[in-house]
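As a point of orientation, let us examine one representative protein, giving the amino acid sequence and backbone structure tokens.
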Amino acid sequence: MIEQPPFWMWIVGFLLVLGPLVTLHELGHLLIGRWLGVKAEAFSVGFGKELAGFNDKHGTRWRISALPLGGYVQFKGDMNPASMPDRDAPVEDGAFQHASLWRRALIVFAGPATNILIAVGIFAAFFMFIGRPVPVDPNAQLTIASFTEDSAAREAGLQVGDRLVSVNGAKLESFSELQNTIMLRPEETMTFEIERDGALSTVDVTTRSTEVEDRFGNEMRIGMIGVAPQEVQYDYRALGPIEAIGAGVDQSIKTVDMMITGIGQIFTGKRSVQELGGPISIAKFSGEHLSLGPLAFISFVALISLNLAFINLLPIPALDGGHLAFYAAEAIRRKPVGPRTTEMAYRTGVALVLALMLFVTVNDLVKLLPFG
């Protein structure tokens, strides 16, 4: 384990991660809104009291606000920064609430879409300029060379020389893919297809639950089956632009799938809610990845960008996903949801988001302070 980076690196890392990502998210809303003829009254980096700002030629007030934990675009016709519709606002050109349904939906979706594009772009750049690791002998990396002392795989009947073909029906391409699949599923029975002496068969293996620490002392519970592969040499193959974008999309999908799996395990009780983190955890991990160098930090930025997109697309009023849910209801009903229902939903959504923020912040403090 190495020393934690200095506290100032937490702050710098946090600002370098969330500042640009939130700004670009909101900029996605703003630019698509302007393209579709909707006017923005305010664009704020952060919440609360305005520290500095200016008005542009379009009449938008650009602000830097006191609380650097997000940001917002307030379009013409919005009652507040959460884009709660103001039913009493006059019908005017450029008002968001009087734009057509498809325009409103596209403007709202533009924010999460921007975060997704950022992550895909980062992953694609890695594949273009660094390359994708390609094993010299593809079969060797998935061939079992040895077992750990307490190996769930050996107890289930696997043997040295077996080649792992698939897990739970998904074909395996690399040993790292196998590790990522297993580590997310502690104490879970998984079906492995193996090749032994040229014949295929299936074996059920129940993963072990293991507590591990990373180099910074962060504890995590992961699944393991206790196998080691044959030593394999890798070549890095740079991808062309089109292939790299495809690989970036694929990597983003795999990352989101890992997020969904983890959240699902928390809801089903397979993982503790203490594993949820908030702004303090993001600051801590930002500083740690910043201390590891630019590549590790940029990879972390891609991960957080996908997290922002995923969270914002949840169907919670006051988040982008909540707005899209209302628009879906409007499309089905062929008229907007009533003002009383809308107001109650937005108030509930804001309360839920604030309660979640409070919970994860307390969670962070409990983990960091001596009594945690």
